[in-house]
Design brief:
By secondary structure, this protein is α+β, with helices and mostly antiparallel strands. The chain is built from 9 helices and 13 strands. The strands form 4 sheets. A 4-stranded mixed β-sheet has the order 1-3-4-6, with no helix packed on it. The protein has a 4-stranded antiparallel β-sheet with strand order 9-13-11-12. Strand 11 and strand 12 form a beta hairpin.
Length: 337
Amino acid sequence: MKSKKFSFKGISLLVILAVFLSTFGAVLPSASAAARGAWAPNTAYAVNDTVTYNGSTYTCLQSHTSLVGWEPSNVPALWQQGGSGGGGTTPPPPATNGAIFYADINYGGKAVTLGVGNYTLAQLNANGIPNDWMSSLKVPSGWTVEVYENDNFGGTKWTFTANSSWVGTAINDKMSSVKIYTGSPSNVTKPGEVPSHIWTYVMNADNAYSKGGDFALLLSAVIKKESSFGAGLPGSPSAGDGLMQVEPNTRNAYMSQFSSKFGRAYNHGSEQDQVYLGALILNEKIVRFGNIYNGLLHYNGGDNWYPGATDSYGRPILADQYANSVYATYKSYGGRN
């Protein structure tokens, strides 16, 4: 379950009260500054005391007696994230180089920049990002951003290696924790000819099946064959099914499985969902028929395909040629299986 949003209106009133009490000496005195262990309510803290909370260290900025609701991540007027720096009362400036997260699509609304690191919900809050937020983002070249649906890096993970002016319905306002690092995930490198937005789609699908990046290479090879990375869609008889050219009848047969896997209905017009659906079908074929090559044969030719099979018009179904082509591309990308 995601953490619920906290009422910052209530926190603001508490912070004002804390400052008032500190100013007029109403807060109980405490021992000299020291490492105080885990933060706890109803405890007197002095300036420069350090505590731990949700895996992070915080330094006390104002003497006060803590209360429930005054957790360090909620009251930056009282606590600065990080160890004591000699008594300074100004929190560190925000990152100026890193991934930029935006409240609205097309890089609009509030913007927050985060550098390399892992950010729980409390840490996102401390940086000015509320729960269930973000509609677009910019990712520096060579960086990877992993967005998680739940706090503490739980739930569905979506991977971005390039800018996205609209993260899509499935991801919009779903961010509750984030990992940001340089380099490609899982030691898999994006093939040069694969467009960045396609790579984002296939890595998200790869993550959904915990394939470590190899499945992303295979899906990229399929998309190249099926739609030339989207360039071949105009005029296609099943263009609505897009990048992986899943035919309407096949698509309809997998609707319930899609909903079970991804927790929502299939969006016919979403390129990400087109890749998710194709990935679901291809993964099933690989598992059912034993390996990637056989999976490709039956992804193209159907479950009952055999060498020499023909369609209802007597035309040969050349699934072997299809599998040879896609498999060769996949291996050229660095495919491992």
